[in-house]
Every structure is written in structure tokens, then in C-alpha cells.
């Protein structure tokens, strides 16, 4: 049976998505230029080896401007991730099944963790920086709250016998960027994605 989530849950999920603050056209262009420069430098040299000074110099802005806009390199990483996270969130809210609406909750859960595992693999250094900027940073982001709510909703539908609040956090725990970084040499990308999908399948299967 397909996913029949109520529209109120869709609204709740959509409400968590972080809308970009409105800004003047010149400020928006400046921000886009900084993010484009940062993305290119990070891709070329690696996130850890690029300084805020380098980004400011390449973008043609003062270092003070860069820090005022983004706070620090972790804030810049979060801003870069924003658009990429929005693409995945959009697919969850209105894309084709099984990631989007229309598939059974269990299938959607497996599709989500698989999609997020690939997302994490492609953006690992950025996600890791944003999640480890300070203690508990991961759990305060709008993105994590969105993922957790989505997983909780699907678990509650697929397995009403489980504590969906607890198991939503439990299923997302192995998707922490710091853990993926630590297991990078031990677990290939495929093995990692297959493992998290199997974990989701075991949680969303028949009631015990």
C-alpha cells in the first residue's frame, strides 16, 4: 500500500526547510560569488587545506566581510550545503517514489537512507565540518531536524510498535559524517550504503 501521509505532516516537514533570508540584489550576487569561489577551492584543494583568507582573496572581498556573512569556515560549509540539501529535501517532498510520496513507508525509508548515504559520500568534508564545528552542532541544524522528522514519520507508519522518536535518532546515528570519515578506509561507499539500507530494512520490516 502506498504512503498516505497526511498533508499536515508534509507541511510540518516543509516548515523545517530553512528559507534563505531576503537580501539586496548586489548582496545576493556577492554571496553567490563567494560560495562559487569556496566550492571551487574546496573541490581543488580539499576543505581542510583552504583558508578563509584564500577564499576572501580569490573572491575579491575583505576577510571581515567574509566573517560577517558566514561567521567562520563551518558557517561557509553550511551555506554551501544548503542548496544541495534543498535538492534532496525537494525530492523527498515532491519527487517520484520511492524517495518521494507514493511508495510504502518502508520503501521510502530505505530509499532515503540510501540517497543520504550517497549525498554524504559526495559532500563528506563539508558535512563533517558543519556537524563538528562545536559540540552538538549536528543536531541543531535545520537539515538534521528535517531528516529526523522524515524518518520518524516513516517509522511510525511502517512500525507502529516501535518508539519512532528513539529509532529515528538511532537510524541517523550511523550517517554522522565523523563516523563515515573514521570508517572510510574500512568500508567502501557501496558497503556503507548497502549496510545502512539493510539496517533501515530491518527496522521497517514486519512487526516482531
Draw up the topology in text.
Blueprint: H1 7-16, H2 25-45, H3 52-59, H4 63-70, H5 73-94, H6 105-122, H7 124-131, H8 137-140, H9 142-158, H10 164-172, H11 177-182, H12 189-204
Helix pairs in contact: 1-9, 2-3, 3-4, 5-7, 6-9, 6-12, 9-10
List keywords for this structure.
208 residues, 0% strand, mainly alpha, Tetracycline Repressor, domain 2, 71% helix
> Would you identify the CATH H-level superfamily of the domain at 13-18 and 73-204?
Tetracycline Repressor, domain 2
CATH topology of the domain at 13-18 and 73-204: Tetracycline Repressor, domain 2
Mean pLDDT: 90
C-alpha-based Rg, rounded:
18 Å
Protein name: AcrR family transcriptional regulator
DNA-binding region: 51-70
InterPro entries: DNA-bd_HTH_TetR-type_CS, Homeodomain-like_sf, HTH-type_TetR-like_transc_reg, HTH_TetR
GO molecular function: DNA-binding transcription factor activity; transcription cis-regulatory region binding
Amino acid at each position: 500500500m502506498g504512503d498516505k501521509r497526511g498533508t499536515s505532516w508534509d507541511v510540518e516537514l516543509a516548515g523545517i526547510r530553512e528559507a534563505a533570508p531576503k537580501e539586496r540584489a548586489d548582496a545576493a550576487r556577492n554571496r553567490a560569488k563567494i560560495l562559487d569561489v569556496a566550492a571551487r577551492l574546496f573541490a581543488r584543494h580539499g576543505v581542510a587545506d583552504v583558508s578563509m583568507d584564500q577564499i576572501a582573496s580569490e573572491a575579491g572581498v575583505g576577510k571581515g566581510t567574509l566573517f560577517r556573512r558566514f561567521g567562520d569556515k563551518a558557517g561557509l560549509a553550511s551555506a554551501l550545503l544548503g542548496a544541495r540539501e534543498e535538492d534532496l529535501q525537494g525530492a523527498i517532498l515532491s519527487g517520484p517514489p520511492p524517495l518521494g510520496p507514493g511508495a510504502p513507508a518502508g520503501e521510502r525509508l530505505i530509499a532515503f537512507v540510501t540517497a543520504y548515504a550517497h549525498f554524504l559520500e559526495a559532500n563528506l568534508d563539508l558535512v563533517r565540518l558543519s556537524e563538528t564545528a562545536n559540540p552538538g552542532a549536528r543536531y541543531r541544524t535545520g537539515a538534521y531536524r528535517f531528516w529526523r522528522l522524515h524518518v520518524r514519520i516513516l517509522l511510525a507508519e511502517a512500525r507502529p510498535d516501535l518508539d519512532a522518536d528513539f529509532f529515528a535518532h538511532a537510524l541517523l546515528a550511523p550517517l554522522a559524517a565523523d563516523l563515515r570519515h573514521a570508517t572510510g578506509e574500512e568500508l567502501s561507499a557501496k558497503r556503507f550504503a548497502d549496510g545502512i539500507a539493510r539496517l533501515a530494512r530491518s527496522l521497517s520490516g514486519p512487526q516482531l
